[in-house]
Amino acid sequence: MKIAVEGCAHGELNKIYESVAYIEARENIKVDLLICCGDFQSVRDQKDMHSMAVPQKFMDMKDFHEYYSGKRKAPVLTLFIGGNHEAALFLWELPYGGWVAENIYYMGYAGVVSFAGYRIGGLSGIYKSGDYYKGHFEKPPFNESTKRSFYHVRSFDVAKIKLLADEENPIHIFLSHDWPKGIYNHGNCEQLLRFKPYFKQEIDNNELGSDAADDILKALKPAYWFSGHMHAKFSALVEHENGSVTRFLALDKCLPKRNFLQILDIGPAKDETILKYDASWLAILRATDNIQTTSCKNTFLCELDEKYKPTVEKTKEIKLDDLKVIDFSHSSNGVNVQTFTFCERFNLVNPCNISVEPICNNAYGSSRKSFGSLSLPKPIFNFRDEIEDKSIADKLLDSKKVIDHSDEFAELKRPIPRDLLDESFSDESSSGEAEEDNLINPCELKKSQILTLNETPKQNKTADSVNHSFSSFIETPFDEDVLSSSAYTESKSLPREELDCTPVAKKKFLLVRRNQEMYTPKE
Question: Which of 233, 225, 266 is nearest to 250 (CA)?
């Protein structure tokens, strides 16, 4: 069974599906499942777009609305988690997950599903310590604060996921948007720093990545872990104390000359290739339903007792018919029939109907109390750290630097033909992110590099052993000929002799760490 893994989609669904179709035709294979690691951007209309945390100039409808309206249908079953650039107004309707369009499934704040007998878990959002111990207090209408805190990971969701730790019935695949903290210690860190040199300070201080994701990685020990967010391809092998190994892979965003897509063979299907609910996860949702909170105050919940674990008796209470995923339906006035039906079927409280504490509904989603006639200054919030790019401009990097063709950031020599990806598909219009470096060299695809789930990893964790842990179905839109007319070439509107070639002093840039999620140059 083959699955395609996509890094950050940023709404470019047409390009992604065209890339998958091209690989299928060229390699004579059939992709059974497409997984997206966040920043999916399921924007239906203008209201959804304004509930998404992106700079004004990047507010673009992109492709999803065509799939929601039925004009297009996803050609392959698609599974995705939320990132930090999502339509909060729409995803808020599906706290437990559900179909956002026909054949496109969202996993909710956190969730586990089953596909072809493989258990797939996911955690949406990014780690932010200030909101980690709060409940999901956000609700429409979203303001500048709540449309960002909406996608912050919560300790309650992490605690529920950690209850799934079971060596006899393990999670096969896990998805997170940001990387587990310290994952760079298990792969080719030197190569990562060659591609993303501004990660060095965070790596040296052990600050790069998510503490929450690292906790889940150590608890569940899944066979595979896929992430996005950092806009870089990076692979690693994590060896656990019990002898099991997690194969980690992070991918880039959907842009020309980028490693944004990879296909893996995880072994034969163990069940019918349809999406089902996971009985153990449903048992956990039932057991913890009466302790969930929508408070914006810190609850400091780190662990859940053994009594909340999914025992055999609890899972047997889930009828086999209940494992069928509820069909897709359009929402009406902010009410999603899928969430209503899901909560009714499993006797859960609908989080969308819970009244959020009034104290959370001020202009900034803060829990600050009023003090009578005392005059307080208006709070100032800096949200730029969560919407700016995690990249650095090409001019800040050494253009003469050469990357070894055998490294883990290599690309394909035979990219997708030009007719599949039009010239308008440029860096400026493809996402809510700024321009990034483009220092990737090609390498040849080898069918022998396809990894199977049962393959025994090499004992020596060298760079080569990490690289061979994943197949090289990396698809990039343009080749050298196409680049001659692409948006990446310099303007030819003026003759060379008319151009002003007077040397200009280069500006000095200072790299500033705003928080652990974002990395941006500042003049």
Answer: 233
